[in-house]
Amino acid sequence: SPQEIVSGDSEEENSGVNLMDFSDEILLHILSYVPSTDLVLNVRRTCRKLATLCLDKSLTHTVLLQKDYKVNKDKVKQLMRDIGKEIYQLNMAGCYWLPSSTIDHVTRCKNLVKLNLSGCHVTSLRLSKMLSTLQHLRSLAIDVNPGFDASQLSSECKATLSRVSELKQTLFTPSYGVVPCCTSLEKLLLYFEILDRSREGFMLSGQLMVGESNVPHYQNLRVFYARLAPGYVNQEVVRLYLAVLSDRTPENLHAFLISAPGSFAETGATKNLLDSMARNARLDALQLPKAWINGSGLLQHLKFNNPFYFSFSRCTLSGGHLIQRVINGGKDLKSLTSLNLSGCVHCLAPESLFRKAEDDIDSSILESLVVSCCNLRHLNLSAAHHHSSESIGNHLCQLLSRLKHLLSLALPVCSITNVAATVEKPPTASNLVPQTFGRKVRIGIQTCPRNLADQANQKIESSVFWALMGSLRFLETLEIIGSSFSSAMPRNEPAIRNSLPPCVRAQSVGDSEVAAISQLTYLQSLTLAQLPNILTGSGLVSIGLQCQQLRTLSLANLGMMGKVGYMSALMDMLKHCKCLRDLRLEQPYFCAGAQFFQALSHCSALQRLCIVSRSGTLQSDAVMSFMANCLEVIMCHMFMGESLTACRNLQQSIVRSFQADRPALNVVIFPLLHEDLTEVIRDVPMRHLDEITLFKSRVAEEPPNLWW
């Protein structure tokens, strides 16, 4: 604590070491890890030396409040009053708990250059008043909510917007937002979160925008990024944004990215846009809807400069086209640092016309990819069957081990198994039964289980996956996801009641493979989904012991579907996860009882918890005790099999007991299969919904450093 730093009775002084004796450079580095509000409002009041250091430009230049869940309106007010003029970059993204009046205090930051208010409550009038005073602003991120009216923006506000070169805009209603006012745009990021129906049940239409008089100004645009949530209205609205681009492609455009789920059909206007890009642009980053790439010769005509990001997620692009048209026949592509091939089922095969998704990959294609893109840091190969052949030395894991710079990796479960253990094995009767949630169904478990102790203690150092984990020592994010896995948690539709069985090749993947992950000393984020052969979960304990920097853990559908066989190991694991901040568990029949929450209470840094479990149960007293013990927890989402009354009572008890001391507290406890679940989901803050509540692969989801 700040008091201990200057206390004569501190451990440092007793041992002959006083923190205040360190150089200013070292102290500034230490203080850079302290939240800005604590620095200015607490630490600087402890002694004269810290009072000076806490106001150093290196600490006040950039203020990050985006995950300071303890900050409130009064703290922001005092912070802006004390150092407002010294702040050049302010990030308040996701501060959903702060009242909209908090934004009024940002006007004290006269020298602001970058401002992020995504996820904050800002009205048109408040935005106008604030921006009118920020004449140096060049980068802005805001939400556009129902009721936004651009006609309420003052001329001074529009003058500020005319100088903004970077804009990130999240749309919850059909609108151009402030885009028409930003006449100097170089980077435009658009997130479309418009629902097809209003809260009152009325159908929405993207054509509501037609009456707006101004149009976007894209002449200086270098980066265009659009991410669409499911829904046809989002597609209608983004087409209106693209219409201006189709008339004339900006000369300096070097990144064009559209992330759209499902089917997003190509139109005449979008075809004109792509043709224009092929003629005039040299791109460094590319992502397009699958319908715009599939069956077209577009990639053959696009020109690339020094590309750093490609995403061909869910496209039917074959490996032959990938090598020939994107990697230029295997030429040097060292500039590429991030590649997303998630759901690209034929990307490692020479052609896709007569190929089945489960056929073996062509290792020569993957080898060309690895050799050409040797500096890859982020690679996503999930949501596909990438089966290696029996050729010695050509297993997918062996080839990927050459990518020494990888920081994040996503793989399908069936790609990491040893070929000799799975190939030529006919499917058993249990493999052919659809995966249901009955208690007696034992999907993926052998008729005669192995000796559990032997399996838990074995380090199969000869396995290709063990070797891969050993070679990627600096990996920070790892996702191992079943190729047919789908989460029961909905986006804009009812909860999924049935899921597909795991791939036959994945049947042998279990505790030993999980134990191999414990070699990743610097691992910060781990996702494991649909690993059918998890028997005891012994590998989880190894991860808890060895991966001490683990901050995010997501486990889904491990082992038997009718029984949580790894519960004991999970509880042992949690006792060692001192840095864990986010935990997501998705498992049918999960029992969130006293023992589980007692183990979870050892995770003293935990901030967010999400449990999704069909027919799952929870113990209310245990939840309340856990919330009382874990003071950092600000998000508790549980979607289980309890009654609506029981869920509401527990939710109200948590809010009543802890909301006052935890301003950011967000609690949603609701029956998973209730018909109103989608209405409940729409009220969840976007930060939590996008980062933890909804399951998805996040490796190479966006270009690195897309926004600050």
TrEMBL record:
Residues 16-63 form the F-box domain. One of its GO terms (cellular component) is SCF ubiquitin ligase complex. It comes from the Eukaryota. One of its GO terms (biological process) is SCF-dependent proteasomal ubiquitin-dependent protein catabolic process. InterPro entries: F-box-like_dom_sf (IPR036047), F-box_dom (IPR001810), FBXL18_F-box (IPR047948), FBXL18_LRR (IPR045627), LRR_dom_sf (IPR032675). This is FXL18 protein. It comes from Tricholaema leucomelas (pied barbet). The gene is Fbxl18.
